[in-house]
Amino acid sequence: MRIVLLGPPGAGKGTQASRIAARFELPHVATGEIFRSNVADGTALGQVAQEYLDSGELVPDEIVIAMVLERLAEPDCARGFVLDGFPRSGPQARALDKQLTELGTPLDAVINLEVTEQELIHRLAGRGRDDDNEQTVRNRLAVFTRTTAPLLDYYIEHGLLFNIPAAGPVDEVTEYILSAPANASLLATGRHPAPEGAAVSSVRIVLLGPPGAGKGTQAARIAERFAVPHVATGEIFKVNVAQETTLGQVALEYLDSGELVPDEIVIAMVLERLAEPDCARGFVLDGFPRSGSQARALDKRLSELGMPLDAVINLELTEQDLMRRLAQRGRAAGNPAVIQTWLEIFTRTTEPLLDYYDERGMLFNVPASGEVDEVTDRILQATIEVTHRPHGNLWAGLLANGSRTRRPEEGATAS
Questions:
Q1: 140 is catalytic
Q2: Which pLDDT value is given to residue 188?
Q3: Of the listed 13, 19, 204, 281, which one is catalytic?
Q4: pTM
Q5: Is 407 a catalytic residue?
Q6: CATH 3.40.50.300 occupies which residues in the chain?
């Protein structure tokens, strides 16, 4: 098994490479260590590299490539390796591929650890080093993104790149890496985004929850995390009415007459929005569906478009927490009696909807108490678990027979 780990500074490549290497009893080939060893041991390559360093020049690609390829040709790498810190450019990637092809030991996977810019700044600035101030970190990440984009594109074209969310706990990230080759949905299929971009190729999520559960806040965060639109049905409704679309005019007639807008109008507005181009690779839907009829209409339309839902996340809060949150809004709705009535109506109307999605194995109940960041992490974990369901332990298969990971066209399918 031959793996390359990529990712920006602060993504945790060294930690994860050591863990994966230990898990499969493979050498962790850290290119920084190779370089230091060659210089310290005074090897021929080390001496040449030292001359460049002493003259204040960058060590040429050719020297770095030669050091790494020399290391990978050693006996302990014959059955595999986890390579960390190399390649860092297109020429290095091509040289690596050429050498491994000649050895009859091509790469199995390239794991790209993705962390948002905000999280990376937090991690690096937390080191307390002089060169880790926020502006320096931003500059470093900008350089990384610019220089690495062609490298990621190279591995996308070769069907080897898997994008892994690396913002969570260390153990969680390790498990995502271990599941990568078994999950076709992790296989990158287009131009790689900036570090703050999406971790998966597509994701279609519905967020449910009572008033005060934080659906709007969390939907916006999850949408940003996966670089898909946040489709807020209240906003759709307002836009249709303000722009006087056909649906908006019909809805306004009902509102002017003091009547509720029928399901059919709301459904039509939402389905029209989901058919727009920016929703083609996914969305986070907030405020819809609110009934079984709406859910069935949504499923039917998404099936027709060939883009079924991945998950329905239900934000759960205790009645006590909901009372406290709604009361803090300082509105008339903060009255305990009003809140109680509101929640009773919500529970009565939503239970059949939750049952509908539960029967289809799509419902994930997520505790919505605690800090906003904590809730976001819980939703991300649930989302990634359901959109990246394994299709058998291909890591075990690789260990057992040394076969290459199958590409989607060879039979691996996304959940």
A1: yes
A2: 63
A3: 13
A4: 0.48
A5: no
A6: 2-200+388-408, 203-386
10 Å Cβ neighbour count for 411?
9
Integer Cα distance of 107 and 6 in angstroms: 14
Active site residue 324: no
Eight-class DSSP state of 187: B
| Tokens (6 digits) for 342 | 């509101």
81: pLDDT strictly greater than 90: yes
Alpha helices in 227-335 (DSSP H): 233-242, 246-256, 263-274, 292-304, 319-328
Annotated catalytic residue within 23, 94, 98, 127: 127
Contact (Cβ atoms closer than 8 angstroms) between residue 152 and residue 188: yes
Among candidate residues 23, 94, 98, 129, the one labeled active-site is 129
β-partners of residue 68 are: none
Q: What is the pLDDT of residues 350-367, one digit of tens each?
A: 888 899 998 888 888 888
CB 114 within 8 A of CB 166: yes
**Identity of the residue numbered 366:** V
Q: Is 300 a catalytic residue?
A: no
For residue 406, indicate whether it is catalytic: no
Q: What is the band of 348 on the pLDDT scale with cuts at 50, 70, 90? A: confident
Residue 208 CB contacts under 8 Å (≥ 6 apart), including other chains: 215, 312, 313, 314, 315, 350, 353, 354
Give the architecture-level CATH label for domain 203-386. Answer: 3-Layer(aba) Sandwich (3.40)
Torsion over CA: 215, 220, 225, 226 (sign): positive
Are 208 and 312 contacting, i.e. CB atoms less than 8 angstroms apart? yes
Q: How many CB atoms lie within 10 A of CB 376?
A: 18
By DSSP bridging, strand 311-316 and strand 282-286 are unpaired
Q: Which one of 79, 138, 140, 290 is the catalytic residue?
A: 140
- 163 strand-pairing partners: 112
- The yes-or-no verdict on residue 227 having pLDDT over 60 is yes
The CATH code of domain 2-200+388-408 reads 3.40.50.300
Q: Which tens digit of pLDDT belongs to each residue from 285-344?
A: 998 888 888 888 889 888 887 788 888 999 988 877 777 777 776 554 556 776 677 677
| 369 phi-psi bin (left φ>0, alpha ψ -120 to 50, beta other) | beta
- Work out the average pLDDT over 207-219: 86
